[in-house]
Write a structure and sequence with these properties.
The chain has 160 residues and is of the alpha+beta class. It has 4 helices and 6 strands, in the order ααβββαβββα. The radius of gyration is 14 Å and the shape is globular.
């Protein structure tokens, strides 16, 4: 199956799985579990929400326990939030500000989440393989995140 076809099928699965529900906790948990189990070579998949302080606070995820709070502007997640665009890191060891929550992670993609113009969080995928996320994966994961965002009510911000 081509990479495009994998994401095509997965996008349909996301829309079916989230149909009729808009709650962030419910949809976020199911979305993370689906992506974690359906895409090969991932060791962590999940959400961080923007706190009023700018910190990113852990949300629903699949994988090992992760860092609860990422300081504002730091890590791959903070960098993607600051540039308000997806960020792909082929080798996290070469990204000076990478925050290692799971030492198995070698490459990473972070996609920001918006309600209109307002950035309210990020979706993060980690892989134990170097350069796991190519251009087709970036486009595919952005498609999945769009389907998630269309089905889901943006959550209230977490506490400072
Ligand atoms: N590596 C991320 C932190 C989150 S974990 O990957 C779950 C970062 O550098 O922002």
């Amino acid at each position: 199956m081509s990479v495009f076809a994998i994401y095509d099928r997965l996008e349909r699965q996301v829309r079916e799985l989230l149909a009729g529900e808009s709650d962030f906790m419910a949809n976020g948990a199911n979305f993370a579990a689906l992506v974690y189990h359906e895409l090969p070579d991932l060791n962590w998949v999940g959400f961080y929400r923007c706190a009023p302080s700018g910190d990113l606070v852990l949300g629903p995820f699949a994988g090992r326990p992760a860092c609860t709070r990422l300081p504002a502007g730091h890590g791959v997640c903070g960098a993607a939030a600051a540039r308000r665009a997806s960020l792909v890191v082929d080798d996290v060891a070469a990204f000076a500000d990478h925050i290692a929550c799971d030492t198995a992670s070698r490459s990473e993609i972070v996609v920001p989440l918006f309600a209109g113009d307002r950035l309210w969080g990020v979706f993060d995928c980690d892989s134990p393989a170097l350069a796991r996320f190519g251009e087709e994966d970036r486009a595919g994961i952005e498609r999945l995140v769009r389907a998630f965002s269309e089905a889901t009510q943006p959550p209230e911000p977490p506490a400072r």
